[in-house]
């Protein structure tokens, strides 16, 4: 299977050469949406975790970007606001349409939306497939809040019994050193064996984005396409679920008996 993780910055571009944080956020997104959609088509992921997606503000002409990309790919999709129901952000124009999303080739068995106890961005999307669970996160910019969120995420991961991937923008400004204890406690390891920066996309200096997995997942390939449609580079990994091949062979054998 192939998994794509991509913070698409609401398809508003990468924010300019010097990356002013809010630069371009209010512009129309049609052009960059088309480019990102075409790029995702070339990657052909079985599962895509997309961060910073516009679910229908005026920027995207009231259209849900996740639904539009999913329709082009022929995928299922799920999405949810990054902010809790009663938060101020859910009552503000534009921010009330800022979501994270999954696109998935195979039918979705279940999806659950969890919210961290602290932070502005609190969403965790849990996507459950037949033999796999994937958690998608976008952690806080604040160091202390980020580590409180990692504690909450630890509890979610520990409660899962299936092969598991945890992916997202961890905003780990100190790189993988920030999540060493989290990885040790959960038993997760990074799909990117040698640390590589993913931000900003045109001259990467910080490793903010991670794809982590448990021992039931075997990574067969990992790469980061050099594209600047957003301020983050996309992460792509190919993987196998340990034991899945043997189970498939047994199923074929019994079908012929």
Describe this protein's structure.
There is one protein chain. This protein is an alpha+beta fold. 23% of the residues lie in helices and 28% in strands. The chain contains five helices and twelve strands. The strands form two sheets. Strands 3-4-2-1-12-11 form a six-stranded mixed beta sheet, with helices on one face. The chain starts with a strand and ends with a helix.
What's the topology here?
Elements: E1 2-7, H1 30-43, E2 47-54, H2 65-73, E3 76-81, E4 98-104, E5 110-115, E6 123-128, E7 133-138, H3 143-158, E8 164-169, H4 180-186, E9 189-190, E10 209-213, E11 217-223, E12 235-241, H5 244-256
Parallel strand pairs: 1-2, 7-8
Antiparallel strand pairs: 1-12, 2-4, 3-4, 5-6, 6-7, 8-10, 9-10, 11-12
